[in-house]
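Input set for joint prediction.
Command: fold jointly, output tokens.
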Amino acid sequence: LAKTTQPISMDSYEGQEVNITCSHNNIATNDYITWYQQFPSQGPRFIIQGYKTKVTNEVASLFIPADRKSSTLSLPRVSLSDTAVYYCLVVSWTEGGYNKLIFGAGTRLAVHP
Amino acid sequence: GAGVSQSPSNKVTEKGKDVELRCDPISGHTALYWYRQSLGQGLEFLIYFQGNSAPDKSGLPSDRFSAERTGGSVSTLTIQRTQQEDSAVYLCASSFADRGLPETQYFGPGTRLLVL
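tokens >
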């Protein structure tokens, strides 16, 4: 399973765009990149998933370069409520056809007024 | 249901006692996962259910840990003879397995277990 590396923490201010970059040098051909968000005392929540190029939804954008060895989660105009831990995961299919999520330490994002 | 629910939300027990943690997945979700999150640590996979069977139990830390799922719905994680190192947040997730794409896992709020 591909290991991911992302910054331990980041700080930002309300209204700014935040970009969190994750490296996954050993990503396999069939792997997807997925980001989850976790607030204190809650379970993780799916944000976005992609395979290559750019994916955008109502919450975030995900940029994946052609070599797929890294990805960048972009949060537009963050607010205080975006303060959370963000996990980058490389999701592989197991032989059994299911996904065993491997979480790293994540990036602790603090948004300041 | 509206989301994954877990009970109890908090559990304090004494070392050596058995505990049962319950997970109610989203209705219709065939896949169910248990994870554990220790203080300041990331989440670690414990076990995966597809229907009532558990094809992957590789993450269970010891034979004191067991889990079952009945009716393709509710799951119970049991920890026997609890130890202090079992203290953690136990999270359950469910998904509607779709082999077309890696499925989104929906997590419950977790059960916070404290072993004294």
